[in-house]
Design goal:
alpha+beta, Neurolysin, domain 3, five-stranded mixed β-sheet, three-stranded antiparallel β-sheet, 26 helices, globular
Length: 648
């Protein structure tokens, strides 16, 4: 039913190599058959792709969550093999011809999902250079191979530099005010003395930047954080150069133009206008919020002061004590409550499985609907040194029906970096961690609840990149709702349920400095998109970022801040010329959630969301699915409204 996750790296290496060779042989056999149809060619062709994903995603995942020299070695060996195979297949004129033939002869008889597979396939063949002469195809292969390696190197440099740094604090006064649970995690014993170790891993870094009383130590930690991965400066130049070359080989003016071919946005100007309009509507309020913060601090603030004084102002204004709240958000209680909430609204059930994973703290759960298992989810939620920073969902298996009419079920990994638990201390989450978990679970159920029969457009597969954040952002809004919070927010010692008053304060504080947060995200998005509108090299990259900060930001960081060197989303992830997607999708999620609020969380709306968004995956354009869901176009103004921003 489900593939057993394999942690033996040598086995995976051999399986990936064998699968590539098997796929090549089977594709040749499929091509030899005459009278190609969707059923005889596309169905088995999709399954071959799925088989390789199943094997390779294991080492991809292990290199992210249990990083080691061995995982790096195996991953770096396999990556060029998989990339070369994928590029070769994506440029195969014979397969491209079969797609075009099926479109011409069979298209009108096909289901919507099958039509989407054909349309997406023809688009992707064109974007892979199938229409080009052999010299250009060969150059594209070289570029894709090199880009995949550069992406891996970029990510590894960030992880290595993150793990290489530590700040050891001896004086108790320098940790005064830091939450007890964070202090316990930082505590180390050396030569009979109690010391405190803070690192650049997110739970530890955020803790000291938010609560650390020593400004000099905050500056020291901040400096280490924003100067990570110096080696990536050179990698950025090469990545940008290769992306620009690739776009031009394919007939586009720039990489941004190439990037939006598979997105909802249909013009680069539309993306820039969207981001700049949001910035224009948000900046006055962001300036006001920053002025209030400096007035509260009674000083001009440095970058390493902002989180510290923001937390103090938030606590004073809304009486929200982060540590007090954390006592109500014990990790397992939150997970159980989230499962219970999803079970209630979507009529499913989560059951823990004994299935082994890659780490003792990973839990595995099977999802049931109408008494039948429909999917599986792996949760890897606590931070550790072998794990890359951040939070993400990785789809592993996809729901589909194969050529022999056998149904395959979906599975996915949800990975976070929450404070680690120990034998004496549970993992206590900040409310922002709770929101993060809801966000990633939104991605997961989008993939896992799919009813689509074609793997290429099932779950998150085939969803436009600037729409894929919609279900995740939508679900995270529920992490502020009283009816949801009170199912799991219970004091980890006393069992007391979080009070109505505490929830009211949390909701009031929800949009604290929301305009500052908005312009910060817009800074990242504009930098990413403009960076790919023409070729920037060397100092030009920093100058572009500086100019965008002048235009959008309310606080300019110090010159040594090299944020771009650890901007993994666009240099090691899938967000190149696509970071704007977070805000683009937030238009959909905000509008959908406002509809739920205005209709008192109507059950018919929930069912419509399940049937038109979650069940349908990437089988239709999200633009069309959203219209089916709410029977109208999305309203952009609800994004500002739900963020508490009064636009111009």
């Amino acid at each position: 039913m489900f593939k057993q996750f394999n942690t033996n790296l040598e086995d995976i290496k051999l399986n990936v190599q064998n699968t590539i060779e098997t796929n090549k042989t089977k594709i040749e056999e499929l091509l030899k058959n005459k009278n190609h149809t969707y059923q005889s060619f596309i169905k088995p062709y999709q399954e071959l792709n799925e088989n390789l994903e199943l094997e390779f995603n294991q080492v991809y995942n292990l290199n992210s969550v249990n990083n080691s020299k061995k995982s790096q070695e195996i991953f770096n060996y396999l990556l060029p093999l998989v990339t070369e195979y994928s590029t070769q297949i994506s440029q195969d004129e014979r397969i491209y011809s079969v797609y075009k033939s099926i479109k011409q002869n069979e298209y009108q008889k096909l289901s919507q999902a099958c039509k989407k597979v054909i349309d997406d396939g023809i688009r992707d063949f064109k974007l892979s250079g199938s229409d080009l002469d052999q010299d250009k195809k060969d150059r594209l292969k070289e570029i894709d191979l090199r880009l995949s390696q550069l992406s891996t190197d970029f990510s590894q440099n960030v992880l290595d530099s993150t793990n290489a740094y530590e700040l050891i604090i001896e004086d108790e006064k320098d940790v005064k005010g830091i939450p007890q649970s964070d202090l316990e995690a930082a505590k180390i014993e050396k030569d009979g003395k109690t010391l405190y170790r803070f690192s650049l891993q997110m739970p530890s870094y955020i803790s000291y930047m938010t609560y650390g009383p020593n400004e000099k130590l905050r500056e020291k930690l901040y400096t280490a954080f924003v100067t990570r991965a110096k080696e990536n400066t050179k990698l950025i130049d090469e990545i940008l150069s290769l992306r620009d070359e690739k776009a031009k080989i394919l007939g586009f003016k720039n990489y941004a133009e190439l990037s939006i071919q598979s997105k909802m946005a249909n013009a680069t100007s539309k993306v820039i206008n969207f981001l700049e309009e949001l910035a224009q509507k948000s900046k006055d309020q962001a300036k006001k919020e920053f002025r209030e913060l400096e007035e509260f601090a009674n000083s001009k603030l440095n970058s390493w002061d902002i989180a510290y004084f923001s937390e103090k102002l938030r606590k004073e204004r809304y009486d929200v004590d982060e540590e007090l709240y954390r006592a109500y958000f014990e990790k397992q209680s939150v997970v159980n409550g989230l499962f219970e909430f999803l079970s209630q609204i979507f009529k499913v059930e989560f059951k823990k499985s004994d299935t082994k994973a890659w780490h003792e703290k990973v839990t595995v759960h099977d999802i049931y609907e109408d008494g039948k298992v429909i999917a599986r989810i792996y949760l890897d939620l606590e931070a550790r040194e072998s794990k890359k920073g951040g939070a993400w969902m990785n789809n592993w298996q996809s729901h589909y029906i194969d050529a022999n009419n056998k149904t395959h079920l979906a599975s996915a990994f949800v990975v976070c970096n929450f404070p680690p638990s120990s034998k004496t201390n549970p993992s206590l989450l900040r409310h922002s961690d709770v929101v993060t978990l809801f966000h990633e679970m939104g991605h997961a159920i989008h993939h896992l609840f799919s009813k689509v029969s074609e793997s290429f457009v099932s779950g998150v597969n085939g969803v436009e990149w600037d729409a894929v954040e919609f279900p995740s952002q939508f679900l995270e809004e529920f992490a502020y709702e009283k009816s949801v919070l009170q199912t799991f927010a219970k004091h980890y010692k006393s069992g007391e349920v979080i009070s109505d008053e505490m929830i009211k304060k949390l909701k009031k504080a929800k949009n604290f400095q929301s305009a500052m947060a908005m312009v910060r995200q817009l800074e990242f998005a504009l930098f990413d998109f403009k960076l790919h509108l023409k070729l920037y090299q060397g100092d030009e990259v920093q100058k572009l970022l500086d100019s965008i900060r002048e235009e959008v930001s309310v606080h300019i960081p110090p010159k040594y801040n090299k944020f771009q060197n650890s901007f993994s989303h666009i240099f090691a992830g899938g967000y190149a010329a696509g970071y704007y997607s977070y805000k683009w999708a937030e238009v959909l999620s905000s509008d959908a959630f406002m509809e739920f609020i205005e209709n008192n969380f109507d059950k018919k709306l929930t069912q419509s969301y399940k049937e038109n968004i979650l069940y349908k995956g990437g089988s239709e354009s999200m633009k069309e699915l959203f219209k089916k869901f709410l029977k109208r176009e999305p309203k952009v103004d609800n994004l500002l409204k739900i963020s508490g921003i009064v636009g111009k």
